[in-house]
Amino acid sequence: MSAPEKVPFTHWDEPEGEWTLPGACPVRTDRTLLLEAAARFLFPTVLVFSVYLLIVGHYAPGGGFSGGLVAGLAFVLRYIAGGGSEGAEIGSRLSLRPPVLMGLGLLIAVLSALAPAAFGAPVLASATVSVEIPLIGTVDLVSSLLLDIGVYLLIIGVVLDLLRSLGSGIERDARDAAGEEAGP
């Protein structure tokens, strides 16, 4: 068993383990442990809140747009904390491709908006179905929830695409600055 490696005092707070957020941060010293720990705690919490906004959007303010923006903010927080130049990975273990997510969201939204016209109803008309779920009770499912799900996915895809495009320039500038500091 080898002795633990001595870390200079100036580098004692740099993230070292897998328990921190994954991501390709160009300058590891720019990552803060507190922000990474907070992001690891807040990311799933904010995503659950965004799904809550998505679902209650028919009965209270919220819906697909608000839920998508909140989920997008969770990805922005994760990106700021951990970096991520691998396209849409954005510090996540799931590889989401923003153009595919945007296309899927747009397809779901358009199809759910036009579906009532196939049955002779006006475009964007909605129907309600009551479903009895054991231990929960009666749940009303509104067909316009599909439109909100499409908008939710579309907004998340747009935010991830913005992070990918804008973040790549920021990371490139950070790498260039780190290369200049290191010298030739």
UniProtKB/TrEMBL annotation:
Chief location of this protein within or outside the cell: membrane
Q: What UniProt keywords apply to this chain's record, in alphabetical order?
A: Cell membrane, Membrane, Transmembrane, Transmembrane helix
Which residue ranges traverse the bilayer? Answer: 37-56, 62-80, 100-121, 141-163
Protein's membrane topology: Multi-pass membrane protein
Q: Which residues form the Na+/H+ antiporter MnhB subunit-related protein domain?
A: 35-160
Instruction: Answer whether the UniProt record assigns the keyword Repeat to this protein.
Output: no
Q: Which InterPro entries match?
A: CPA3_antiporter_subunitB (IPR050622), MnhB (IPR007182)
Location(s) in or outside the cell? Cell membrane
Name the protein family: Belongs to the CPA3 antiporters (TC 2.A.63) subunit B family.
The protein's name in its UniProt record:
Na+/H+ antiporter MnhB subunit-related protein domain-containing protein
